[in-house]
Design a protein that fits this description.
With 452 residues, the protein is an alpha/beta fold. The protein folds into 2 domains: 2-189 and 236-301, UDP-N-acetylmuramoyl-L-alanine:D-glutamate ligase, CATH 3.40.1190.10; 309-451, Protein-Tyrosine Phosphatase, Chain A (Alpha-Beta Complex). The protein is 32% helix and 21% strand. It has helices spanning 2-22, 30-39, 43-46, 62-75, 90-100, 121-128, 149-161, 272-287, 292-301, 329-340, 390-399, 437-451, and strands at residues 52-57, 80-82, 111-115, 132-135, 167-171, 187-191, 217-223, 226-230, 243-248, 252-257, 262-266, 309-313, 318-324, 346-351, 380-386, 407-410, 427-433. The strands form 3 sheets. It has a 9-stranded mixed beta sheet with strand order 2-3-1-4-5-6-9-10-11. α7 (149-161) links the parallel β4 (132-135) and β5. It starts with a helix and ends with a helix. Zinc ion binds next to loops.
Amino acid sequence: MSKLRFAAGLVAGRLAMNTFRILGKDAESDRMGYLPVKICPDFIAHAARPKAVIAVTGTNGKTSLTNFIADMLEESGASVSCNRWAGNYMGAQAWCFLNSVNVLNRSKKDYIVMETDEGDSVLTYPLSKPDYILINNISRDSIFKNPNPDFIMKRLEKAMEGTPDSTLILNADDPVSCFLKTNRKNVYFAVKDLGNGNPDRIIKDFSVCPRCGGIPQYLYKNYGNIGKFVCPDCGLTSPEPDYFAEEVADDHIDVREKDGSIYRYPIITSDVYNVYNTVEAVALLRTMGFEPERIAEYISKAKLPVDREERHQGRHIEVINRSVKNSNGAAASAQFESLHNMKENIALIMIMDEITTSNRVETITWLYDADFEFLNKDNIKQIIIGGERHLDYNLRCLLAGIDKNRISHCLLAEDTVKYLNYEGIEKIYIFHDIYAVELSHKLYEQIIERID
Ligand SMILES: [Zn+2]
């Protein structure tokens, strides 16, 4: 029966996919992947497998890393099936398999590289049985999604029981996910102290030692709670990395391997997230057996991991339109911190309400998880807030000690641009909710017209 269901799902799925492609419609979507799953719930388990199935998960950065790895493997000449559009639930994963087989269930791709939701892993991994599972980091996420790291870790641990043969590639600098119980030998990567002198954040996902309950001490932090730690009471410390970025420059990193050999790889930008992504991708490809020289070549040809932002340099002012994950205190804090570390005079427009999902703008708890205090700095001259919850943002800014003369706020996000005072400003940032792409782009264009 299940074989019949699978055949029906496969034929229906392939037919729909091919028809959409012929008609020039979007054949890459979660919906397309859910079609065979509706007919055959364990579709993924029956689909023919390529040479390797690679699953990428974690709270932050998985879309960039997934695309980066897919680019690198394509540069090696391989064919890759990848859910590049950031969908990561069962439908998107089923799509990767549907896309990689023909109607006779013969594999026609070399690799599947798929972004996977960390909370859903317990449902999907036992079906897809990835050959490699990469976990960037696990931290507090939006309260609508994966808010509790302990809960997510329990789901991942359960998922591991169904994937005994997967090789795990874990971040030794993430004190939460590095302790995932996997009952096998894991591959760890880490990055040296980048000297960011990381200030404390409100969100603390790693406040007590998981072994003895002591207070862990950081030897260094590279961002958030990512860094090397030791517990002064029981000695528990970050795992020894198999791949360690021991030198980080503007255009390259040197990665030391367990046997002491060191290889140089190019990097496209030296921002901390890209450094972690690059080391993680290197750890994967080295584990898969690729030579360092080849990997360096693939990195140099891979596209820049998409940062979901657009930039324009006007005569005197640069404008940057950047998407910020909604309802996620940690993600907002990372963006606020990046502004905090700049020297230029900045105006910031925030339209971060979940405007397209009007039933959800009521949630404001995350405002108190996010470090608005980073924005309380002399060179951040103006903060302009637009949207249904503008009064709440205003209150949060005031509680962060920001001078009220620097804050403007209004109900309609469209009106924010009117409050801009361009005098002496060098950079204008728009931080927008991931669903406000169109609106933020409109504001971005209006600003460009003014500054060119
Ligand atoms: Zn301890």
